[in-house]
Specification:
This protein is an alpha+beta fold and about 90 residues long. It has one domain (about 15-80). The protein has three helices and three strands, in the order H-H-E-E-E-H.
Amino acid sequence: MKTLYLECKMGAAGDMLMAALYELLPDQASFMETMNHLIPGVRVTARRAITCGIAGTHMEVDIHGHREDSLDLADGCFNSLFQDHDHDHD
């Protein structure tokens, strides 16, 4: 038996935690089928994604056809968020 320890001192986003655990599963298709039959009207989809150069799995959750908008940063835009301001400081 293997043991997985999660240290979430700052918390963990549900979709990110689910995606990380999903990547460890040997039978991902069976898991998705089970997830999509748990709650009527809720559909979970896993897709490969690259955000700011980091590849991984993104879990999308649709509830009765509605999905939250993602606030993920596009490739390279992280730096522009913090560089587009006045430089009145050292």
